[in-house]
Write a structure and sequence with these properties.
With 328 residues, the protein is of the alpha/beta class. It has two domains: 2-111, Up-down Bundle (Four Helix Bundle (Hemerythrin (Met), subunit A)); 121-308, Rossmann fold (3-Layer(aba) Sandwich). It is 47% helix and 13% strand. It is built from 13 helices and twelve strands. It has a seven-stranded mixed sheet, sandwiched between helices. Strands 7-8-10 form a three-stranded antiparallel sheet, with helices on one face. Strands 1-2 form a two-stranded antiparallel sheet. Strand 11 and strand 12 (294-296) form a beta hairpin. It is globular. 47% of the residues are buried. The model has no long low-confidence stretch (mean pLDDT 94). The chain binds 1,5-di-O-phosphono-alpha-D-ribofuranose (RI2). The site of 1,5-di-O-phosphono-alpha-D-ribofuranose (RI2) has 17 residues, from helix 2, helix 6 and strand 8. 1,5-di-O-phosphono-alpha-D-ribofuranose binds next to helix 2, helix 6 and strand 8.
C-alpha cells in the first residue's frame, strides 16, 4: 500500500497510475479499461471506514483522470463508474463500483469486437491499407478481415518519436498479415499505393474532429488530396460528451527527451524542442468513424454522444471536474 493524501492507495492501483503516465499502459482503449480495473481494485481492497469510501474512490478517480490529458476514453471510463454512486455511500457504493467497473470493461471489449466486424466489411479482398501508430481497434479490424480470408497488405508508419508503429508491425506480422514499415515522412510517397487509411482515435469531438497520434492530420491531408478514403476505427468511448458542453481537448505535450537526448539539448541550448503527442484532424478529411454502432459520418458524431451518453452528461462531466475533482 502507498500513502495517499488522506487514504492509502493499493500498490496495484499506483502501478496502473504510473503505467498510464509512463505509457507502459497505452492506447486509448487500454487506458480506459485499465482505469476501470484500477477503480475496481481500489474498491475491492478498501479497508478503511466505509463512511469514507465515496470521497476515497473520488480521490482515486481524480488521480486516474490526471494521468494523461487527451484521450477522452479515460474520463469516460472513470465517469461511467463514478456517476453510478452519486446517490450511494458505504458498502452499496463499494459494491456498485466493482460491478460498474466490470460492466465497463465488458462493454468496451464487446464494442471492439463489434466494430471489427463492421470495419472488416469495408475492406475488400486485395486491399492495401495504411495505418499510423498502434491502435488495438485498427488491428482488430485488420485481423477480422484477414481471418475472413481477405488477402490484405498493410503499410504502417514508424510513428516517431515513440515508435508505436513498431508494435503494429510486429503484431500484424505475427498474425501473418504482410506489412511494410515506413518512416512517417514518406507517407505522401506511399498514399497512392493504398486503397484506404485506417487510424485509431483518442478523442472525437461533437462536431466530428478527430484527435489522434501526432502525424494523423498530415496523413488525412495526403489521403484527401489523393482521393483515398480515410477512416478512424473507434469504440463509442472515444466520443467526448464534454466537448458538446464546450469543454476543450487538451493536447498532451510530452518531454523533449523523447525527441532528442539530454546531451543534444545541452549541446544546443538555443534550440527549443517541442513534443506534442496528438494532433487534430478536421471532419472534412474524414470519410467516417468505424464504430460499434456502425460507420458514422463525422458530422453525426453528436448523435453518438446523444445515444450513448445523453447530452446532459457533458455538462455533468465538466461540473464534476470543476467541483468534486478539484481535490489537491
Ligand atoms: P486504441 C494511441 O495513443 C494512438 O493515438 C492510437 O491511435 C490511440 O491511442 C487509440 O488506440 P498513445 O496511448 O484504443 O500511444 O485503438 O499515445 O488501442
Amino acid at each position: 500500500m502507498v500513502e495517499g493524501r488522506h487514504w492509502r492507495i493499493p500498490r496495484e492501483v499506483e502501478d496502473i497510475i504510473d503505467g498510464i503516465k509512463s505509457m507502459r499502459i497505452r492506447g486509448a482503449g487500454k487506458i480506459a479499461r485499465s482505469a476501470a480495473e484500477a477503480l475496481k481494485i481500489a474498491a475491492l481492497k478498501y479497508r478503511g471506514d466505509l463512511k469514507e469510501f465515496t470521497p476515497y474512490i473520488n480521490y482515486v478517480a481524480h488521480k486516474l483522470i490526471r494521468t494523461r490529458p487527451t484521450a477522452v476514453s479515460l474520463p469516460n471510463a472513470v465517469f461511467y463508474v463514478i456517476s453510478r454512486i452519486k446517490d450511494l455511500t458505504g458498502e452499496d457504493a463499494r459494491e456498485t463500483v466493482i460491478k460498474a467497473a466490470d460492466e465497463f470493461i465488458t462493454l468496451s471489449k464487446k464494442a471492439l469486437d463489434r466494430l471489427s466486424e463492421i470495419g472488416a466489411k469495408l475492406i475488400k479482398d486485395g486491399y492495401v491499407i495504411m495505418t499510423h501508430c498502434h491502435s488495438t481497434a485498427v488491428v482488430s479490424v485488420l485481423q477480422k478481415a484477414w481471418n475472413q480470408g481477405k488477402s490484405i497488405r498493410v503499410i504502417n508508419t514508424e510513428t516517431r518519436p515513440k515508435f508505436q508503429g513498431r508494435i503494429t508491425a510486429r503484431v500484424l506480422a505475427s498474425i501473418g498479415i504482410p506489412v511494410t514499415h515506413i518512416p512517417d515522412s514518406s507517407v505522401r510517397m506511399f498514399i497512392n499505393r493504398v486503397d484506404m487509411v485506417i487510424v485509431g482515435a483518442d478523442t472525437i469531438t461533437s462536431d466530428g474532429h478527430l484527435i489522434n497520434k501526432v502525424g494523423t492530420s498530415l496523413i488525412a491531408l495526403a489521403a484527401w488530396e489523393s482521393g483515398t478514403s480515410f477512416y478512424s476505427a473507434t469504440e463509442f468511448i472515444k466520443f467526448s460528451p464534454a466537448s458538446f458542453a464546450g469543454g476543450d481537448v487538451i493536447i498532451e505535450e510530452r518531454s523533449p527527451l523523447e525527441v532528442v537526448s539530454e546531451d543534444w539539448i545541452k549541446a544546443n541550448p538555443k534550440v527549443n524542442v517541442l513534443n506534442p503527442a496528438f494532433d487534430v484532424t478536421p471532419p472534412e478529411y474524414i470519410t467516417g468513424f468505424i464504430t460499434d454502432l456502425g460507420v458514422i459520418p463525422p458530422k453525426a458524431a453528436v448523435l453518438v454522444i446523444k445515444e450513448m451518453f445523453g447530452l446532459e452528461s457533458g455538462y455533468m462531466q465538466l461540473k464534476l471536474i470543476e467541483e468534486e475533482y478539484a481535490i489537491e
